[in-house]
Design a protein that fits this description.
The complex is a heterodimer of chains A (884) and B (153). Chain A contains 36 helices and 18 strands. Chain A is an alpha/beta fold and 884 residues long. Chain A folds into three domains: 321 residues, Up-down Bundle (ABC transporter transmembrane region fold); 200 residues, P-loop containing nucleotide triphosphate hydrolases (Rossmann fold), CATH 3.40.50.300; 156 residues, no CATH class. Chain A is extended and about 120 Å long. Chain B has five helices and eight strands. In chain B, strand 4 and strand 5 form a beta hairpin. Classes of the chains: A alpha/beta (884), B alpha+beta (153). Chain A: Its main location: membrane.
């Protein structure tokens, strides 16, 4: 990358800069006339000096008034032309700058993708992210004006100066006499400010890093009462920033002071020298005034130029600082990632590593002249004590880290120089904690299959035009033109024909890594859009009917679930749910705040239930006060069972003692709302409060019907009603199948219903369909919505689905419990029978089922062979076996 | 069954006899009422116990695993409490409780149970009385068993 920002600008935007310069120069004549015209208007058109009317102009005759209109018309034209130039130049400047910024960011991002792994030990995301996002932002602005601004403003200044010289050269010289002084002192001071600026940028970077650490390490901070120390560290950093900022301010405003002072010295000289000359009669008063006026006019461009200088220095420093951070030693060539070989060779034969050496960043050796050789159709275990270089070896073999020296061959392929297109497709690696991206489970699973856009997307004419614009813009800025909407899946690599095949394979692999049950459960709890997946919705409806039959025919299950029935009150659902009889979509019918909803209030009123609800609210409040009044406010019961939070309880207490239960129809609005809100939360069979009589239940069912019938059009999309023969898009698959509420008070009801559901799924072969839905589950930032075991299993599945010739696992299952570890290991060993597998293990006894074992010690392989052979004759192996 | 009825039933249990009605109400309100089908297990020997059950209706069998197979040692009915040992001292369930008929219970979790016992010494004393009675009965049984063995010699 260019180290000098000007070289960078010229290299990538020479054409734009030339165009900008030409446009600036072209604008000067108009500018000159814009300055010249007022003189003409006053002297000739108004005062008629040196002119006799009518004048002839381009074949037309003008009298004085007409001439005045002609000249002011021209003046207006010049104003428009000037502003038009400014507009075009500004827009073009903005676009050029933005393009360069896009190019720069893209280039920096590409570099991050090529950083050697150890770099990330020294550089944290907290440092890297602001560099690409905010720190380079002002560069875009600067790049746009890099050449055009000094030319435009400098030219503007020149135009004014030449205008002044034409009027009176002495005054012109006096006006700019002090500019050299300014041009000499200001940059010197500015340099100091810039150096401080540089320090400040560095300090802020550290600050953002500290912030990131506090967030990531917040658990440690709490468990060790380290918050005071963290605060002190933060304070300390802020103080450093403050000190630098303070000095910057002092200098910055001194510069401002000097600038203004020198600017004001101009008039001082004019009045002193010019005044003397006027008194002596060598200068006319009018010229003096004109000179002062022109000097004022000069202030703006001169200021712009000085400010430009300031920005230029800023930009230069920022650019250099950023670039220097993005050139770590040992970075791979861009071609290593971009080259697409004609053919991807398979890794077969033997893997040969000779004289592999690797040091860490302190220079101490991790691998010391390591030599080994094993077949690529064998399952190889690596064992050795901690610090033996096991992990480093897996990194080198997986081509994550470049060895300092040594040769690494896989069959005929030189692994050290092979492009990522080969090693990244033929080798898989999973460490102890794989990373899961914030997208769907399926996208994560297929991440390793998306190397290039393989199957183009078909575009309609109009979309094709948009696509072409996209490509043009990307090309102009050196960005990637690969179509993100194309199908990137490499089906061939996964050993399948098409999307269907890939899904089937995914199910197999999820089973292999013991994740299918989890994905199945996630699928049950996911929603689908029946418009997008009509078959799935249809299947779910069929499952609902079947489930219903099953329940109907089994008396022991019948009581455990209460189906939603249009004309029956559901005693296991809350009053709110019973009234709404559907799933709320959006916030309009928030089940916790139903009482506040105007439409709900109207329906309750029309059903003649308002007073009933108030009475129920009163009863519930009374009971709650009786039960909870003595409990301390932080008691968990409030959260678990309370209808009323501990904060609100005193309020209700006051209400109950103030309000007579016979006069509930005459309440203040807020009291009313408070009482009204309580009954909505009542679930009869759970709370057993006895406040809901059969009569009230019937009325609520009637209100439910009215609610649906009278729902105004603008609320139609705020609720998805329960309908026995329609799929409910707002709720998940499981609730769609159950279509009812699991009853309270029955032992193991949830388990028994779950088992019945599982039978239905089994009988209808719905499992794979549900797992496919589960693949659309969004996993959250860094997979936070999955647990650590699920994440790791997903990473292992991702590494297997691309059918690597060599799978490298670095204690990838060590965080699992014993039984899971054994199960997974057996499955993976089975899958990789006759294929390449390298597994770094912490326990020697786990190596029994491998074909080959490497024993490491002190960065070397001290012995290797089949586990049986080693067990008999190898002292280190026996030692490791005994230790584990 | 409404909360009121539950409170009535709970008050008939000697353990709760001396506790104020409002506290019993709270106990009933915060505790889950669980119905077991005949043959359902309330708890199984060896499991970790986190709750005791007050029988409000129906009958349950207490079964202990012995080397010669399961042995029904007692049948419990209305107003009896089961499963309290495992929550009093942290040991796995000492017996299996199986519903003999449809069984309605009030499940009281360990936390709630301890809170009640510490808050109401009367309840602790009552608990001691129940346990002591059981000890007397067990000692009695042991005595009889020993005699049977001696006679058998």
């Amino acid at each position: 990358m260019e180290h000098n920002i000007y070289k960078y600008i010229l290299r990538y935007s020479k054409k734009q800069q030339v165009i900008l310069t030409i446009m600036s120069i072209l604008s000067f004549p108009a500018l000159y006339y814009y300055l010249e015209l007022p003189k003409l208007i006053i002297n000739q058109a108004i005062q008629a000096n040196d002119i006799s009317f009518p004048v002839e102009y381009v074949g037309f005759e003008f009298d004085q008034t007409a001439f005045l209109y002609l000249t002011v018309g021209l003046f207006l034209l010049m104003v428009i032309v000037n502003q038009a130039f400014k507009y075009v130049i500004n827009v073009y400047q903005g676009i050029s700058g933005e393009r360069m910024l896009r190019r720069l960011r893209y280039e920096l991002y590409c570099r991050i993708l090529r950083f050697p792994m150890p770099t990330f030990k020294k550089k944290s995301p907290g440092e890297i992210i602001p560099m690409i996002t905010s720190e380079v932002e002002p560069l875009g602005g600067f790049i746009g004006e890099a050449f055009a601004l000094p030319i435009f403003q400098g030219g503007y200044l020149l135009v004014i100066v030449s205008f002044l010289v034409v009027q009176n050269w002495v005054m012109a010289v006096a006006a700019i006499a002090l500019y050299p002084l300014q041009a000499f002192f200001i940059p010197k001071l500015q340099r100091k400010v810039n150096l401080l600026g540089k320090t400040r940028v560095r300090l802020v970077r550290v600050l953002s890093d500290q912030l990131g650490e506090s967030v990531s390490g917040v658990e440690e901070v709490h468990t060790h009462d380290a918050s005071s120390n963290m605060r002190a560290q933060f304070s300390n950093q802020m103080d450093k920033i403050y000190t630098v900022r303070y000095r910057i301010y002092l200098l910055k405003f001194i510069i401002k002071f000097l600038n203004n002072f020198i600017q004001q010295l101009g008039p001082f000289f004019f009045y002193a020298i010019g005044g003397t000359m006027v008194i002596n009669g060598t200068l006319e008063v009018g010229t003096l005034v004109a000179a002062i006026g022109a000097h004022k006019e000069m202030a703006a461009p001169w200021k712009e130029l000085l400010a430009y200088y300031q920005r230029r220095e800023d930009a230069r420093i920022k650019y250099e600082q950023v670039i220097e951070q993005f050139e770590p030693a040992g970075m791979r060539d861009a071609d290593n990632q971009l080259v697409e070989p004609d053919e991807i060779p398979s890794l077969t034969g033997e893997l040969v590593a000779s004289n592999i050496e690797l040091s860490d960043d302190t220079g101490s050796k991790i691998l010391e002249g390591l030599n080994t050789r094993f077949k690529l159709n064998e399952r190889v275990a690596i064992i050795g004590p901690a610090g033996s270089g096991r992990e480093a070896l897996t990194h080198v073999l997986a081509r994550l880290i470049d060895p300092d020296r040594g040769r690494l061959m896989a069959g005929d392929v030189n692994m050290v120089t092979a492009p990522e297109a080969i090693v990244g497709r033929k080798i898989s690696y999973v460490g102890q904690h794989g990373y899961v991206f914030n997208t769907t489970l399926g996208e994560n699973l297929f991440f390793g299959l998306k190397h290039r856009p393989l199957h183009e997307k078909k575009y309609t004419d109009e979309m094709e035009k948009e696509r072409q614009t996209y490509i043009k813009n990307a090309e102009l800025t050196g960005n990637s033109i690969d179509d993100i909407d194309a199908d990137w899946h490499d089906y061939e690599l996964a050993g399948v024909e098409n999307e269907e095949g890939l899904k089937a394979r995914a199910l197999e692999i999820l089973e292999m890594v013991d994740l299918s049950e989890d994905v199945y459960r996630l699928g049950l709890r996911s929603t689908i859009d029946p418009k997008e997946a009509p078959e799935t919705a249809e299947l779910v409806l069929a499952a609902r009917r079947r489930f219903f039959e099953k329940i109907e025919n089994d008396p022991s299950l019948k009581n455990m679930i209460e189906a939603f029935e249009q004309d029956k009150y559901n005693t296991n659902a809350s009053v709110a749910e019973n009234l709404l009889f559907g799933t709320p979509v959006g916030d309009e019918f928030d089940l916790d705040r139903m009482a506040e909803n105007k439409y709900v209030q109207k329906i309750i009123e029309e059903a003649g239930l308002t007073e009933t609800f108030l009475r129920m609210g009163y009863q519930v409040a009374t009971l709650m006060i009786e039960l909870f009044a003595d409990l301390p406010p932080d008691h968990e019961f409030f959260q678990l069972y309370g209808f009323i939070s501990s904060d609100d309880l005193p309020e209700y207490q006051a209400m109950i003692s103030r309000i007579d239960s016979e006069r509930l129809n005459n309440l203040r609005e807020e009291d009313r709302l408070r009482f009204m809100s309580l009954p909505f939360k009542v679930i009869p069979s759970r709370h057993r409060l006895g406040v809901l009589t059969d009569d009230i239940e019937d009325k609520i069912v009637a209100a439910r019907h009215r609610f649906a019938e009278e729902l105004p059009p603008h609320l139609k999309n705020s609720v998805a009603f329960f309908e026995a023969d329609a799929y409910n898009a707002a709720t998940n698959l499981q609730d769609n199948i159950l279509f009812g509420k699991i009853a309270f008070g029955f032992a193991q009801a949830a388990e028994k219903i779950g088992a019945a559901l599982a039978t239905v799924v089994e009988e209808m072969s719905l499992r794979s369909t549900i797992i496919e839905v589960g693949l659309n589950f969004t996993v959250g930032t860094a997979g936070a919505r999955l647990n650590a075991t699920q994440r790791q299993k997903l990473c292992i599945a991702r590494a297997i689905i691309k059918n690597p010739d060599l799978l490298v696992l670095n204690q990838a299952t060590s965080s699992f419990d014993g039984a899971t570890q054994v199960r997974l290991m057996n499955n993976i060993l089975e899958e990789f029978k006759g294929r390449g597998l390298i597994w770094s293990l912490d326990h020697a006894e786990k190596t029994a089922d491998f074909d080959h074992v490497l024993i490491m010690r002190g960065g070397r392989i001290v012995e290797q062979g089949s586990p049986d052979k080693l067990k008999e004759s190898s002292a280190p192996y026996k030692e490791l076996l005994a230790a584990s | 069954m409404s909360l009121k009825e539950e409170v009535e039933i709970l008050r008939q249990i000697p353990l709760f006899a001396k506790i104020e009605p409002s506290k019993i109400k709270l106990l009933a309100f915060t505790s889950e009422r669980l119905t077991f089908q005949p043959e359902d297990f309330v708890c199984e020997q060896g499991d970790n116990g986190d709750a005791a059950y007050f029988i409000m209706a129906g009958e349950a069998e207490v079964i202990v695993e012995t080397p010669s197979g399961p042995l029904t040692v007692a049948t419990l009915g209305k107003n009896d409490v089961v499963g309290e040992i495992a929550i009093l001292i942290d040991v796995p369930r000492t017996a299996t409780i199986k519903a003999k008929t449809e069984l309605t219970t009030l499940k009281i979790t360990k936390d709630v149970f301890f809170r009640m016992v510490t808050e109401f010494p009367e309840m602790a004393v009552e608990m001691m009385r129940v346990l002591a009675e059981r000890l007397v009965r067990t000692t009695d049984d042991l005595q009889k068993a020993k005699e049977m063995i001696r006679n058998g010699d």
